[in-house]
Amino acid sequence: MATRWLVPLAIAALVAGCGRDRESARTPPATAAPPAAEATYVGASRCAECHAAEAAAWRGSHHDRAMEEANESSVLGDFRDATFRHGGVTTTFSRRDSKYVVRTDGPDGALHDYQVAYTFGVDPLQQYLIAFPGGRYQALGIAWDSRPRQQGGQRWFHLYPEHPPQPGDPLHWTGIDQTWNHMCAECHSTNLRKGYRASEDRYETTWSELDVACEACHGPGSAHVAWAAAASRGGAPSTGGSQGLVVQLHDRALDGWQMDPATGTVRRTAPPPSRVELETCARCHSRRSLLDERYVNGRPLLDTHRPALLDQGLYFADGQIRDEVYEYGSFLESRMHAAGVTCSDCHDPHSLKLLAAGDALCERCHTADRFGV
User: Are β-strands 202-203 and 265-268 bridged in parallel, bridged antiparallel, or unpaired?
Assistant: First the structure.
């Protein structure tokens, strides 16, 4: 795997144009009010009572493991008194009872012991979050390469291998540009509210679930749970076909496609899909900056986010993504998007796995005798 896939999450958010909270404490632009009967979050365990297959596919996925408390089941890195030397600093990773401890350079440049609070991501790398004053969590500048050893993984590496930032630099792991609350948090938890208090320069960040769970995409589920409970009693209320869901997301597979023998490629036989699925995914799978924290599931992405343009440094010259999983900008430029393809035509939205392996995925839409190599 090319090393470009190991670019840290913090850098990706930075170059997308995320603003610094203390420099942007102005009143955010207004958005349209949510529905009058505002739904609340119920949690993935409640969803799983009726949607067991979807919950089983989601468990263990990258969304499920997007952020976890640091413990034996979540930490992948070597904390057996392992050392990593880089930029004149020797960092030590160790265990103290059930705690995971990192001894490394702090904001004053001296070595200090820090307890890992959370793991962040799982593949191809895992970062570690450390609690700091003011409600902040800082992403450590040394990450664990979680790929198999034969692929070059199972090792500690620095996110800035050539020029490690020094204490006082915003890009140093203790600096503002590595602060989880405003750089990374939105896309790794469900119903996250940054809770920045500008007058005190501190955070009171909250979430409904620590990871990316059902309601991160489907929206708060209380009205749907109420609908399902009434339906089980034979008295489901009228919801205009929405079943109480804040946003309708369907597992479309290849509905509405038909093979064209003349071209060897499928063509749409139904109206193009709505923007909802694509923009639900784009909220986190895009280079973008946050304009307004008051995101409402199902509303247009541009209400609250500003996608980055295909700028040099963010994309390759042909428009492909340069790193991470920010496909949205590139996908909008593709012939597949123009033809009406959307995310769930290739990906299972719960397990996040491809619907087929290798060429078999492409052959769902393109004949092998015409396009096969």
Answer: unpaired
Beta bridge partners of 120: 67, 127
Report pLDDT digits (tens) over 284-303: 999 999 999 889 999 999 99
Whole-model pTM: value is 0.85
Neighbours of 369 (CB within 10 A): 8
Task: From residue 186, give the alpha-carbon distance in Å to each of 88, 278, 290, 294, 358.
Answer: 33, 18, 9, 11, 32
Query: CA-CA distance, 259 to 267, in Å (whole number)?
Result: 6
Query: In 3-state terms, what secondary structure has residue 114?
Result: strand
Which residues in 295-368 belong to E strands, given as ranges? 305-307
Convert the pLDDT of each residue in 303-352 to its tens digit.
999 999 888 888 998 888 887 889 999 999 999 999 989 999 999 999 99
**Domain ranges, ordered by start, for the chain:** 3-21+65-214, 249-373
Strands of 121-238, DSSP E:
125-131, 137-139, 142-145, 155-158, 196-197, 202-203
Q: Are strands 89-96 and 82-86 parallel, antiparallel or unpaired?
A: antiparallel
Helical H segments across the chain, by residue range: 9-15, 44-48, 52-58, 180-183, 214-218, 222-232, 276-282, 328-332, 335-339, 359-362, 368-371
Nearest to 355 by CA among 373, 343, 370: 343
Task: Provide the residue type at 225 as one letter.
Answer: V
**Residues 6 or more apart in contact with residue 214 via CB below 8 angstroms:** 44, 47, 51, 54, 55, 58, 190, 221
Sign of the CA dihedral 277, 6, 213, 19?
Answer: negative
pLDDT on residue 38: 84
Question: Which residue, 249, 246, 247, 265, is CA-closest to 257?
Answer: 265
Task: Name the residue among 151, 121, 164 with its Cα closest to residue 2.
Answer: 151
Q: State the DSSP string of 17-43.
A: TPPPGGG--SPPPP-PPPPSS------
